[in-house]
Amino acid sequence: MAAAALVPATAAEAKKAPRLDDAVYTVVARVTMDESWNYDENTTDLCLDGCSVEEKGSGSAHLSVKSKPTKWMVMRGVRGRPPAIDVGTGEGAAAVGVFKRDGALTTTHAGSWAAANPPESLPADGCGTRSVTVPFHLAFTDRTTLAPSIDADFDTADCPAGRTPASSGTAAATVRR
């Protein structure tokens, strides 16, 4: 008699009954990233007039995105890999916001090279603020720690991005079960 009480009476009740091995969470992701760079290089060649090339530049970038509340689930890792928490499709939650990049990089020649090489500036037409949508993921780095991940590449050929940027950022996910 006790076993019969655990079995749903109809197919509709069977669909509504929660599975005991599912872990589903509601996640809101907020991510910010700030980047700044400075570049200053002087190269001297031992030609007759002391030829030199100077490259100077600086710039910055800022990313701020947020996702809507999204249902996520814990998925077991295969072959001993740690589990992942994601929307289940592998695409991540869509985080929407703004990305802003500004920058300038100029090259100036001196000495006998100057006449044949006028100062050059990289184009900055692609700099500025634009709306972005990026996929946001979470993955366990060990048994108790989740790490955020965003798949995005915002560098464009028409906005200088520096040589070796120094990035810093924060990612937070509000999780409710």
Sequence-ordered SSE layout with sheet pairings:
Layout: H1 2-6, H2 11-16, E1 24-45, E2 51-67, E3 70-75, E4 84-86, E5 93-110, E6 120-121, E7 128-140, E8 146-150, E9 166-176
The share of residues in helices is under 10%
Number of domains: 1
Strand content: over 45%
Number of strands: 9
Along the chain, the helix and strand elements come as: HHEEEEEEEEE
Rg result: 26 Å
Shape: elongated
Describe, in plain words, how this protein is organized in 3D:
This protein is mainly beta. The chain has one domain. Helix content is 6%, strand content 55%. It is built from two helices and nine strands. It is elongated and about 75 Å long. The chain starts with a helix and ends with a strand.
Summary?
This protein is mainly beta and 177 residues long.
List keywords for this structure.
about 180 residues, mainly beta, six-stranded antiparallel barrel, 9 strands, elongated
